[in-house]
Amino acid sequence: MASSSSVVSSSSTSAPSARASLSAVAIPNILNPLHLRLDRNNYAYWRSQVLEAVRAHDLDDFLFSTRLRPDAFIPDPANPHQSINNPDHAIWIRLD
After folding, report:
1. Which of 26, 60, 66, 73 has the fewest CB atoms within 10 Å, measured from its CB?
2. The whole model's pTM is what?
3. What distance in Å separates the CA atoms of residue 11 and residue 8, rounded to the nearest whole number?
4. Separation between Cα atoms, residue 34 and residue 40, nearest integer Å
5. Is the pLDDT score of 52 beyond 70?
């Protein structure tokens, strides 16, 4: 239980990278409650369940392509003539 409270306290930060990495951990957990198989008679209900899970884990930006892909490299603050890996790009790749 102590580890659960530490995860909750770390999710209170407002940094997008912290929120994104927590969503990556939670992805396997969203599939467990969806026991409904999609067929031609239940699309509307299935869709509502899937969208609810996607929105609950803040993944709708990926589903609807509203989150832009960050550049793979950014200028090095110490030397503007060189590039370094963009940490936001690594997070985007991991979550995509």
Report:
1. 66
2. 0.44
3. 5
4. 17
5. yes
| Cα(36)–Cα(50) distance, integer angstroms | 10
Q: What tokens appear for 61 in the block?
A: 């930006």
Instruction: Please say whether the beta carbons of 19 and 11 come within 8 A.
Output: yes
What are the CB-based long-range contacts (under 8 Å, 24+) for 57-65? 57/23, 57/26, 57/27, 57/30, 58/19, 58/20, 58/23, 59/23, 59/27, 59/95, 62/95, 62/96
**Cβ contacts of 27 within 8 Å, gap of 6 or more:** 57, 59
Phi–psi pair at 10, nearest 5 degrees: -75, -20
- Banded pLDDT at 57 (limits 50, 70, 90): confident
Q: CA–CA separation, 62 vs 51, rounded Å?
A: 12
Task: Please say whether the beta carbons of 40 and 34 come within 8 A.
Answer: no
DSSP conformation class of 67: S
